[in-house]
Amino acid sequence: MTLTLRYAAHSDRGLIRDGNQDSVYAGPRLLAVADGMGGMAAGDVASNIVIGAMAPLDEDVPGDALVDALRSAVGTANQQLRDTVDANPQLEGMGTTLTATLFSGSKLGMVHIGDSRAYLLRKGEFAQITKDDTYVQMLVDEGRISAEEASSHPQRSLLTRALDGRDIDPEYSVRQVLPGDRYLICSDGLSGVVSAETIGETLREYTDPQQCVERLVQLALRGGGPDNITVIIADATDQDIVEATPIVGGAAARDRGMATSADVSTPAARASALSAPRPAAPEEPAPADDEQERPKRRPVRATAMALALLVILGGGLFAGWTYTQRQYYVGATEEGQVAVFRGIQGQVAGMDLSTVHRTSGTRLDDLTVAAQDTVKVGIRAKSEPDAERQLAELTSDTPSNPNLKPLCPPDPTAVVGGTPTPAPTPTPTPIATTPAPNGSPSAKASVTPSGVVSASPTTVATAAVGATGPTTTPDATPSDSTTPGLDPAGCRSPE
């Protein structure tokens, strides 16, 4: 039995962000959400490139090789991201999540990377069918925090995997589709604000896909709308329905595909063109100038064009530099201190695109191995306050902070203050110089720097009868209180 999809989609800027970095595509066969990152311009470009590369999958009815088709499109998208960064170094660090499904009429192929999500409502049962590629999900998998704690963890948006032009293999899967199945694909602007329980109830209550989408977006806005909100609802039905026009939203709709290499014949371009404003009619050309006036105007026109080009280039450089100075991230200095940086990672013509904004008192070696790896890559922030908040959460010296190594216990033999300081010494007992009653050698008691009385080999001249020379006392048994050294790599210094 061949099924069809009845779908609706919408992408909203939210209430806090200045723009929309999400891109969405919903068609008869392809459903895709990409949540861009790396700053406003870079996030737009990344999500748009990926959606533009995925959109051709909606052209033809796919066969059984759903995963192969998805993998090929993702490879194209990743290569385009890499080429774009190579041509525009200021975009270094951009990336995007991707959660997409490819429908064949009875099966659904899926690709997923990042923290956008896919859910399934089947026969009243609502479940998440993707797994977040995030730092907190890793903590949940390791049993260090619970799923409930992860939902409110301050670093819940920190990604461990995304499409950014580097070699990486997302998760692929294939599912059987049943009549009545309802699929939800969304960015974390919805799932990070509205609880899974409320989302499930909404999917059960609103049977019309468009009304359901609008309600979910409204719920996310009521929750504060801190991020871009992108939602797709698709119902699998065995009824005959008219194939709807593909929906393109978010950054992909604004940009009209200009940031991608896809041509204008793609579904994304055609769908965008339907909602694009009609261009104004061209003005009638002005009458031709006399032949004698043309030579006089050409130098003026050439000069004006040259000046305009210089203004455009200068404005582009200024805009690019201004953009970098609005970006912040948490990283490590060359001296190994965890710090907030202003700018973006990378160099142009040997010049760093970032500077140290504020240095913390925490060293990189004080963090756990997982946290060190994250800091070395760089933790992107939405703003300066967000970077300061992430730095404080990363380095806060509290027992509940999973990012810091435990404190090393004090070394009982360590010298306080870094310079040898004599410990308080009990008044020593004078060594007897008179012969022992039985003529045996005597031992001298001494006080160790730790205050433990122990015996040491001592040469003592005795006046015992028959003694011929000095004798040496044996070493005492070492104290059992000696503590073996602790591996410094597994803990941090309390200083």
Secondary-structure blueprint:
Layout: E1 4-12, E2 22-26, E3 30-37, H1 40-54, H2 66-87, E4 95-96, E5 98-103, E6 107-113, E7 117-122, E8 125-128, H3 135-141, H4 147-151, E9 171-176, E10 182-186, H5 188-191, H6 196-205, H7 209-222, E11 229-237, E12 247-250, H8 251-255, H9 267-275, H10 294-324, E13 328-332, E14 337-348, E15 351-363, H11 369-377, E16 379-381, H12 384-395, E17 444-447, E18 453-456, E19 459-460, E20 471-472
Antiparallel strand pairs: 1-11, 2-3, 2-12, 3-4, 3-5, 5-6, 6-9, 7-8, 7-10, 10-11, 13-14, 13-16, 14-15, 17-18, 19-20
Helix pairs in contact: 1-2
Count of separate DSSP helical elements: 12
Query: Could you report the average pLDDT, rounded to the nearest whole number?
Result: 78
The major pleated sheet works out as: 7 strands, antiparallel
- Low-confidence residue ranges: 256-298, 427-486
Please describe the structure with a list of short key phrases separated by commas or semicolons.
495 residues, alpha+beta, Phosphatase 2c, domain 1, seven-stranded antiparallel beta sheet, 12 helices, 20 strands
What do you see in this structure?
By secondary structure, the chain is of the alpha+beta class. Among the domains are: 4-275, PPM-type phosphatase domain (Phosphatase 2c, domain 1, 4-Layer Sandwich); 328-395, no CATH class. It has twelve helices and 20 strands. Helix 1 packs antiparallel against helix 2. Residues 256-298 and 427-486 have low confidence and may be disordered. Residues 6-236 form the PPM-type phosphatase domain. It is an enzyme of class 3 (hydrolase).
